[in-house]
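User: Structure with iron/sulfur cluster, tokens only please.
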Amino acid sequence: MSVKRDEQLFVHSCRTDSAQGVCRTRGGESCAFDGAMIVLQCIADCAHLVHGPIACAGNSYESRGTLSHKGILHRRSYTTDIGELDIVYGAEQRLFKAIELTIADARPQAVFVYATCVTGLIGEDVRSVCRRATESFGIPVIPVEAPGFVGPKNLGNRIAGDVLLEFVIGTQEPPLQTPTDIVLVGEYNIAGDLDLVEPLFHRAGIRILSRITGNASYSEVCQAHRARATGVVCGRALINVARELEVRYGIPFREISFYGRTEMSRALRSMAEMLVVHDPAVIERVESVIRDEEASLQEELRRYDHLKGKRAVLYTGGVKSWSIIQALMDLGIEVVAVGTKKSTYEDEEKMKAILGPDAPLYENISPAMIRKLIREEGADMLIAGGRNLYLAIKEGIPFVDVNQERHLPYAGYAGLLNLAGEISQSIQYYEREKRANAPIKREVEKDLRPVLINPLKHSMSIGAAIAFQGIDRASVVMHGAQGCNFLGKVLLTAHFKDPVSLNGTKLFVEDVVMGGADRLRDTLRETESKERPDLIAVVTSGLAEVRGEDIVLEIREAGISTPVVHVPTPDYSGGLEEGYVAAVLGLLGLIEPVADEQSFEHASRKIILLPGSSLTPGDVNELQLICEDFGLNPVCIPDTSCLDGSRAGHSPVSVGGVAVSELIGCADASFTIAAGASMAPAAERLLERHRIPFEVFACLSNLNESDRLFTLLERISGRPTPSRYERQRRVLRDGMRDMAVRFGRKRVMLAMDAERAFQLAALLRPMGACVEAAIIPVATDYACMIDAERVIVGDLATLEERARLSPPDLIIANSHGRQAAERLSVPVFEWGFPAFEQPGFNSSVSIGYRGVMDMLCRIAGQLAH
Ligand code: SF4
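Assistant:
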């Protein structure tokens, strides 16, 4: 380091002892206590005990993205949580006891005890308590006297460095030394940055003896004084440590950065130049690593060529500003404005060295200023810290968080690829948001194995039985052998966790041989006399269908007065979805035509809702409520909202749902809304028979389709959207932008009925997730429009096979998919039929603004695992 530069540091940066001059702050930073914690808490095999009231520890708990392989204590929070009496009488005894308990709980290598404003103000002698504790408990207990009022975060960083110099560095000797041992100072391993950097040093034969402090163990910090060279990664924060290592132990230092290709290569070279006196071959090894890495990086970056020429506004702090500028320039991105509120004069010098003397630096940065700069400079993105995220979300600006809250490492060559990926993904998200979804058409593949392994498919009769649960006082009779009825009832009950109506004709051998007609007639008569239902639904199993019985004739001959809907549901054809649709079509057959077609007028506020089988009972309820909020009177066919867990008591007939009388009389409805791709034929049937116009929503599980629903409701009701939905929409839009980074480039596999797969894919795609494959049980008309890379008719073994070949980040499947996911060690989100383990599945809402937001949060929760 040149003398001139060193002098500048002394005056403007971190070397002076004057609190005012220590580290320039222009506001917008946290306190010294936080700064000290940022540095020291990375030492993850040490406990970190905050001595103060709850705010200091509570507000900072898990707020930093530092990762560690050396322990877990950086993620544990200990505080004395002092109260009023402690403030009056002093809390030193309490602190001593807290140290004892912390040691017992954490079994740490050392304890760092942090003074805070209140304990600093009341004059707690933290230092002497720590000394006593060290003697009593036999492990280092180290005071960190950086209460927030002494200055900004940067001062806290420096105090932490002083603490390390006073109490830690030089207190242990390494068991082994090499000529290329280095110490990294000021690297905090945010999001695992070091994982992308350390292998490069390792390949160049350079050993990182000590990390101060990202991914550090206590002992390696103790041994830092035996390093041959120091790399100062965040120049401003811990320059005092590097300087003292040079003064006390003769270890040279250089400032380096790991962000971007240029800086990473420069960092490797800088370290090699300092080490060459100990190992003459180090430069050659480093050059070889740089050659290989830069060549493969160049190749990999080709896929981000579209970023070249994009324009960025940058607002981050300290060393990050200039090094991120360099990283962006490595990607061909032009930096059109830089906020320097948190930068030192030295940082600014460096920025000018990179961007030229006319560098667009803006000290007086504010949200309004950022917005203005983006607009005036025609910027394509904002690169900043997480605190500016809200601004980007509100303004619809592509955004990448480069600060401590980020989730991806950006250091090293691989980190530059991550950064490029994040920027690209963010830009693409907003581009997707702007353009309307173009219809897609894919080829539907079939798994041709002659066996279903871990089937995804359910029978038509199950689908039909579900639909009939949505009719009030319906009795469902399954015409078949006893097992179908019994197992079907167990399955439905386990899924809905509610009593379901499902009886059976219980065919036995003699019925199969002689015919089961008697059995059906008897069952119908018995059902009518005992249960007195408003409707009897007859669903037929494969057994009855194969026997070729004339079910219609038998129903007629049963001579009962209760209306009967018969739905052929052989289990050798179709699946749950087809059975459900068949049942709905059967129900529509009950609607009585209007008496006088000439003088007939549709009831202006009555509409028919046709919810598909993919809607949860909670969804059906939500859809009805939305329609009612527009002053409409929806008749839901079937009204499966009654299966949301609200059924009380036990009844052999279904309870809740649409009344048969209401169903029969709904030919005067003015409009039909079909919710689900499979419901189009039912809507068409209403148009043909009753002249009721319709609109089909293949999916209500994304923003665009929800918008379309609300626009339609405004049109058919003549009323504006109620303000609470406008609010829900704003929340969803912000939430989507917020969560886009979590979903971006995540690879998901779906295994579920086609209609649900359609919905999930339509939910995930706009978020930037890639639906690698949708495994569906049955080929449907609209399967080719599922927005997945591959749509495959198969089973859960198909899912497992595909996922093994190319493991996704998440599997979304029914309860049975959990097994496959566990075997593959892939997180699973349980959704579909059956969903035994998904808490609140049946009352959950996945449609409309509120439901979409809820679904995204649930899925994001699983992705984070
Ligand atoms: S300013 Fe003081 S009270 Fe507030 S967090 Fe910092 S140390 Fe705690």
